[in-house]
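Minutes, project huddle
Topic: does the predicted pose make sense with iron/sulfur cluster bound?
PN asked that the exact inputs be recorded in the minutes so nobody has to dig through chat later. Recorded below.
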Amino acid sequence: MDISQIQEKILKLKKEKDVCVLAHSYQAHEILEIADFTGDSYKLSVDASKVKNKNILMCGVRFMAETCKILSPDKTVYLAQPLAGCSMADQMDKQLISQVKKMYPDYTVVAYINTTAELKTICDVCVTSSSAVKIVNNIDNKNILFIPDCNLGDYVAKQCPDKNIKLLSGGCPIHACVNTDDVKKARALYPDAELLVHPECIPSVVEMADYVGSTSGIMNYAKQSDKKEFIIGTEISIAEHLQYECPDKKFHFLTLKLICPNMKSTTLVDVYNCLNGNGGEEIKLDDKTITDAKKCIDEMIRLG
Ligand code: 13P
Ligand code: SF4
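Predicted holo structure (tokens), as shared on screen:
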């Protein structure tokens, strides 16, 4: 079977089995083509709350599928590739943050959405990279404990100077690998290009960027800009999708270190197998986890 034959079978199975497919923008082009909704973490979580189908299939990483289950507990939610975790989400657990919270009793705990459902149960509000600054500004408390990404947290702290933000040393190992030498090299190779980066990059890289934003933010900025050439400082799939959608512009990878093995682990065949009942994993969360974790996601949607 070639790609289009597998895609045809997927589209047929989706209809037969009443499945809505959600795909994060880091997924491969052939997966985005068969998805009902695509976008960044924030858009997918809002889309997930409005889905009408009985079943949801997430092409992304585990915390994204958990977020769907929390928002749609009566639906059956599948993760297309059970091995697709998120290295950042796996760094901090409920036990650790419960201890930290005791040290900062007057702080509002803000959790990046890249956290486990279990950890979300003890946090006050969730944020995504596209909503973090707005939400932190809207919180009715000066003191914020921001977890787990210290790079996104540093970016938010600089945009919200009135807040007192405490950070822990977590983050995305893929984005955190990019350094200022990578930026200098790319700038030297493509002097006319604008540099667009994700706020999961380290502060010294973020400071060198022309634009900082979520995966969707970067895509929208590049599509709407009058500029013709861009260096993309997030997972390489974003530069690939942009090159496909905007053939009259040029997109360069900031560095080939920006490959997320978790996001890359989902294939079109995984999607097909999951729909066929031969793969994927049903996400199961107990009622209390769903109720408690939902509070901080609801807060994100209310304040965002
Ligand atoms: P977005 O919120 O921009 O989709 O980012 C998710 C992510 O995992 C980035 O590494
Ligand atoms: Fe997680 Fe980093 Fe991959 Fe995003 S790029 S899914 S934060 S490991």
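Observations noted during the meeting:
- The first strand starts at residue 19 and ends at 24.
- Residues 69 and 284 are 8 Å apart (CA to CA).
No decisions taken; revisit at the next huddle.
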